[in-house]
Amino acid sequence: MNSRIETASRAPAPGASRVGPKHVLGLFLVLLAAAPLVLPDFYVTLLNYIGLSALVALGLVLLTGVGGLTSFGQAAFVGLGAYTTAWLTTSQELPGWLAAIGSSPWLALIAGLVLTALVAIILGSVTLKLSGHFLPLGTMAWGISLYFLFGNMEFLGGHGGLSGIPALKLFGFELIENRHYYYLVWAFVLLGLFTTRNLLDSREGRAIRALKGGMVMAEAMGVDTSRARMVIFVIAALQACAAGWLYAHLQRFVNPTPFGLHIGIEYLFMAVVGGAGQVWGALVGAGVITVLKQWLQDILPKVFGSAGNFEVIVFGVMMVIVLQRARDGLWPLLAKIVPVREAPRVIDASAQPLDKKPQPPMGEMILEAKNVTRKFGGLVANNNMSLSVKAGEILALIGPNGAGKSTMFNQLSGVDTPTSGEVLFRGKPVAGHQSREIAGLGMSRTFQHVRLLPKMTVLENVAIGAHLRGSKGVLPAAWRLDRVEEARLMREAAIQVERVGLGEFMHTEAGSLALGQQRILEIARALCSDPCLLLLDEPAAGLRFKEKQALTELLRRLKSEGMAVLIVEHDMDFVMSLVDRVVVMEFGEKIAEGLPEEIQKDPAVLEAYLGGV
How far is the C-alpha of 19 from the C-alpha of 39, rounded, in Å? Predict the structure, then answer.
């Protein structure tokens, strides 16, 4: 195996000294542990609130920064955690089984997490079906609703709140002082950082990150996007709930005020300002905004000589400036100041190869479309289209722009459903089935407009294609119990990267590749799913001559292995020298089908597409 797939790391910036991540993390932990021993009480209290806010912002990094789902309602989940433990631990009239839970704040935490998960699933099942600006508006709606629910329920103390919440005990030691409570708060924060980073560096994490590449791409790679969205929604809610539980036992009193919509917006600001796509950005954002608010509240009344809400105005202006000047947040700027040498990504060449599906015998019918018609209102995009592809055959689908080729691709791959007609894949009807189901049967595709995750490496992008070849879920990923499977998946991804000739770019960010290389990367991602049918939408677009030659050799090799390939392409020299048969479309209909040399002489094709007679 090529040495490039054994170890690699990003080259350090020219002239920049680099330090290891373990050194930076070690220094951070030392400072964190020493802080309550040397700082005044005021700053220890401030650090406690920074930790609580960071825990909520961390969930928003996962939900908004990574998953692309904007939520303004996280403060309501904080309130859910706080009110659950407050009610259970202070009420004197609980049923027996609830009284047993209320006897221990730690049992109340479990009850709060369970309740929050149920509420999040119910709210998510409705909210996550929304898209565009309707999604954040939906989160605002239930955020406001829960806020008023807390204030209008008499058993929760109404707007006056609940008091007398007991202090937490840990190993018999009562955490009354802020200095003692500090270590518990930051233990929760570190646990959240650890599990979130682990999750993102896993099969499940790549599925979550794939959401930003578009639902169509993610589903085509086998990702259940509805499940992935729900997973991060629930995780973010649970982290907010834990913050609420800690807040309640720190304050020993709760009322609805800290759980309103304006606080939810503030949490979102923290995630965005720190760096919405960066795990450590949650910590930076929480720290900056919490400290900044405190400073403004202390300084501005002295400047203006009166107590007003001047800090809100100044704070808003400063946030606009930050968002304009540092759109990716503050964390990337800090990373440039102290460059950290990333640990090399080791590809375990000894990892057990992934299981492969048996390839169908040469000549077996793989794909058959019969009289496929797709209408969009009065527009007929495909009209009685029929084609077939056999194992070990390369079929080209050509035609002028607007002929309906991409629409036909979508009917075949499950992205869209035909108005009428039938699509058979390996003898099974698949019309109307979801694209991830069809992908699981052995069909994989690329896209006319490249759909990659530009900030992820080439290797990680390709590994998304192997999603259906793994099975480890969220909890094993969060606790690093998926490492054997992860090694197998990354080994397979590395093999496919080398296979298409991108080995030297394996650990390069995909967004930095040329367009032609990105198209080749998409083919590697498709191959990583172990398909028996490959659908390629304009794979040669943007490729140089030698790259086209390499692609031609790759496709011929795949053909010799028994793979079926269907290509949509405009480069006729590339097509005619490669494919076995050609289907020509015009205005949504098939006007010719045959061998390349026959198609090049067909008068109808010449008139419609190849330049006329």
Answer: 28
The edge-to-edge listing of strands for the beta sheet with 564-568 is: 443-445, 533-537, 564-568, 394-398, 581-586, 589-594
Radius of gyration over alpha carbons of the chain, in Å? 28
Mean pLDDT by 10 residues, the chain (613 residues): 46 48 86 94 96 97 93 96 96 85 94 97 94 91 94 92 93 90 97 96 95 90 96 98 97 95 93 90 94 84 71 78 82 80 78 91 95 92 95 94 90 93 94 93 93 94 96 95 96 95 93 92 96 94 88 93 93 91 93 92 80 51
Structure tokens at 489: 């998946």
pTM comes to 0.91
Residue 432 CB burial class (10 angstroms; 0-12, 13-18, ≥19): exposed
User: What is residue 591's DSSP assignment?
Assistant: E
Domain ranges of the chain: 43-337, 362-442+531-613, 453-528
CATH 3.40.50.300, domain 362-442+531-613, yes or no:
yes
Q: Distance between CA atoms of 20 and 7, rounded to whole angstroms? A: 16
Largest CA distance in the chain: 93
- Distances from the Cα of 207 to the Cα of 200, 228, 232, 462, angstroms: 9, 7, 11, 12
Burial of 449 (0-12, 13-18, 19+ CB in 10 A): exposed
Separation of alpha carbons 282 and 57, rounded Å: 5
Written out in words, the top-level CATH class of the domain with range 43-337 is mainly alpha
Helix H or strand E encompassing 534: strand 533-537
Which DSSP helix (H) or strand (E) runs through 374? strand 365-376
Cα distance between residue 112 and residue 241, in whole Å: 7
